[in-house]
Amino acid sequence: MKQMAGGAYARQALLPEGFRDQLAPKAEQEAALVRGLVDTFLSHGYDRVAPPLVEYEDSLLVGAGKTRAKQMFRLMDPDTQRMMAVRADMTMQMARLASTRLADAPRPLRLAYTGNVLRTKGSQLRPTRQFVQAGVELVGSPSLEAELEVIAVAVEALAAVGIGELSLDLTVAPLVAMMCDQHKLAGDVREGVMAALEAKDIGGLAVLPDASRAAFEKLLQAAGPAKQANEMLSGLELKGGAGKLVARLSRLTEMVADRLPDLSLTIDPCESHGFEYKSGIGFALFAKGGEGELGRGGRYMVTHPDGHEEEATGFSVYLDSLMKALPAAEKTDHVFLPFGTKSSDGNKLRVEGWRTVQGLDAGADPLVEAKRLGCSHILLDERVRPV
């Protein structure tokens, strides 16, 4: 019977794939990183907001939220019988706040946030389905200075929590579609070209006429260091919205290089995965030696209830990726206070920054107890000594 009970408990302790218990010291490291990021956000005038984990489905699927539809868990509200969804990304909630509760707030509106998000499936780079997202949104400014500010705040926040040697990869997700329109590509040909560019498959462009193929091949070859990429993109001599977007990208790279000279800058004009809802320049930040991106952001549109749209720029960092880019968390030093230690002595140590563990057994050997409980130090004869 005991074996059966033990087996049942073991089954209860199993978690679904993609979910985990965050134990010490990682849980404390994650909390400290969140504090460090948010402190930087707040120092730049971003106001912290905290939307709910679950909302009605239709409010999370407005505008850019449609791109996250397949990633959302859904459940029925027993009171209203309406479908609800668990957020898969907090950016959409910031857009909702900006267009409703904060619609009359002065622009530009600066919002900061942090919280858990939940997704139906993990990915190869992020198998975890629940993780903490933190970020900022700057709503209501169409200027390039908005992108510059968000990038600078993101870099400063990551530096504040110990991430150095960052690189910034800039994208222009709408550019490929704009060029397809200019070259009058439609149907299967258009889809094939977009897939080939996303996969960096130059052979997939062979279906195009010579003039069009040359332009798209140059676009594919433009990926690389920002200066070289901008030169190749300007050589395409694009007109209309595509030309303006390329000119905007060139100007932004100059502004970023001037403000953040130590930041490595690259451009990938064909990258669109994860940037599908971006209406302009997008970006992702990487750390040297890190696994995948630490976070991403860019320009998008906030849709208001009356149908009009408002430009916004934001950035989100993912704590699971951030923790992989930092040294492994180490257990914090603890001081064991033997049974009978005066409360004033413990108070004094905590004021000095120590973490204390109070002994509760009068008959236990203090040194043995300190070792058993994993304490690094012990208070003996009014002095803190290593165990």
UniProtKB/TrEMBL annotation:
Gene Ontology cellular component list: cytoplasm
Binding-site positions, L-histidine: D89, M90, T91, R119, Q133, E137
Biological process annotations from GO: histidyl-tRNA aminoacylation; L-histidine biosynthetic process
Keyword Nucleotide-binding attached: no
Keywords: Amino-acid biosynthesis, Cytoplasm, Glycosyltransferase, Histidine biosynthesis, Transferase
Domain of life: Bacteria
UniProt keyword Oxidoreductase, yes or no: no
Subunit structure: Heteromultimer composed of HisG and HisZ subunits. Homodimer.
Organism: Kordiimonas lacus
Other facts noted in the record for this chain: This function is generally fulfilled by the C-terminal part of HisG, which is missing in some bacteria such as this one.
Protein name: ATP phosphoribosyltransferase regulatory subunit
Assigned protein family: Belongs to the class-II aminoacyl-tRNA synthetase family. HisZ subfamily.
Sample GO molecular function, one term: glycosyltransferase activity
Main location: cytoplasm
Domain Aminoacyl-transfer RNA synthetases class-II family profile positions: 33-338
Pathway: Amino-acid biosynthesis; L-histidine biosynthesis; L-histidine from 5-phospho-alpha-D-ribose 1-diphosphate: step 1/9
SUPFAM superfamilies reported in the protein's UniProt record: Class II aaRS and biotin synthetases
Pfam families: tRNA-synt_His
Localization per Swiss-Prot or TrEMBL: Cytoplasm
Purpose of the protein: Required for the first step of histidine biosynthesis. May allow the feedback regulation of ATP phosphoribosyltransferase activity by histidine.
